[in-house]
Amino acid sequence: MHVTSEQRLDDGVIEREFTLGEIPGILWMPASASVSAPVPLILLGHPPLGLRRMYPRLAARARHCAAEGFATATIELPGSGDRPRWDAAERARADLRRAMEAGEPVSDEIVDALVLPLVDKAVPEWQAALDALLSLPGIGGPVGYSGGVISVGIRLAVVEPRIKAAGLFAGSLVPRAMVEEARRVTIPLHVLLQWDDEGNDRQAALELFDAFGSKEKTLHANMGGHTGVPQYAGDAADRFFTRHLK
Amino acid sequence: MHVTSEQRLDDGVIEREFTLGEIPGILWMPASASVSAPVPLILLGHPPLGLRRMYPRLAARARHCAAEGFATATIELPGSGDRPRWDAAERARADLRRAMEAGEPVSDEIVDALVLPLVDKAVPEWQAALDALLSLPGIGGPVGYSGGVISVGIRLAVVEPRIKAAGLFAGSLVPRAMVEEARRVTIPLHVLLQWDDEGNDRQAALELFDAFGSKEKTLHANMGGHTGVPQYAGDAADRFFTRHLK
After folding, report:
1. Could you tell me the domains of chain B?
2. Chain centroid offset of residue A37 CA
3. Considering CB atoms only, which of A216, A219, A223 is closest to B221?
4. What are the pLDDT digits (tens) for A105-151?
5. A223, B236: Cβ pair inside 8 Å?
6. Contact list, B232 vs chain A (CB under 8 Å)
7. Facing residues of A14 across strands?
8. Which has the closest alpha carbon to A171: A240, A92, A106, A95?
9. How much is the ipTM here?
């Protein structure tokens, strides 16, 4: 892990950009973190739109989490931002765009081609980032995972025992194989669903929530469309992580 | 309103039993309430099992609300506790029991016969109780309604403008007419659903949530069966009322 820049934000949060091999990432540390008082870590997931484009939303979440005493970190997804594309994913993205523009249902084949390779490539990278992050002074654990591509969250929850709790956004475009994999998740889950999300299949989201094997799982459904998650829903997610990571 | 007994509980909450005509009720006032600092009121709904049987759960909720600065009150439902039965309701209850013991689906006719007269009789009584309660020193407003027979909550939310927010338990046995009436509810709603409630039709509960006309409505689904609402779900309901009544 190589730190490429560091700045102190006005609320005292230290923001460090880093690279992990070829992968860019960002780490936010609360002012309160120190070697003698290490803080828990929340990995911030995001959709595959590129870190630069997602930065304002990620930084807002990071500062919110820092105020609650959490370090947060994120890395670029494979095929997003400045990272190299691969042909199959580009084809799947084009197929998805075509289907959506034509108002046609998105086939299982498109969803699988779009999501499964992304999960396979991304998850080991997040695990490598976790290795590096947990070796830093001031970061203790336990670790939570929050938001982003829900299939990445599902796989991480299944394969990465250092992740103790996950807050997920229920979305569509979840491969059938990932719904099956969700049955193997056992960590506490806090799932947000935007009830009237125009880009979301509500029934699919409810089926996925039902599939999760976790004994403690909570679904919070709110109004307000895809980007209209109300402030109090974000606060509830904070309290979920505070309950499980502190 | 005639106060029949008064006691101070160990946390300073004043519990008063009262009668309103023939209807028994209970009022809990936080120690902090006074004429110069009146507190908001939450009406505590409950299933038609009789106030005496429901007392432990109601008193626990009341003390919890008092700690948050709310007065709470409840009255006996028509046909419950020591209040007179009526034949049609008794027949409907017997039909319901028979259907459930036989593992048969509960027909719309049974649900209507069981719930609609209860709503018609109960709601004016809760409104009369509200008249009396809001005239007491130390109780200001605004007013919330919490829990109990969800159809009573729906009707109260539609017809009683003094109720500014409602926390409801999604249950089955909701007449079709009440689902239609739910479309006319516009106040903020906080709806709890026990996801794996053995006595609950989950799909019916989700359809009812969808039907509510409120712009602000939140569904919190949790594991744990009918009586297993987790502590943090109760805390979230408290925060909902604090947001809307303070």
Report:
1. 2-83+119-245 (3.40.50.1820)
2. 26
3. A219
4. 889 999 999 999 999 999 999 999 999 999 999 999 899 999 899 99
5. no
6. 218, 239-240, 243
7. A8, A29
8. A106
9. 0.84
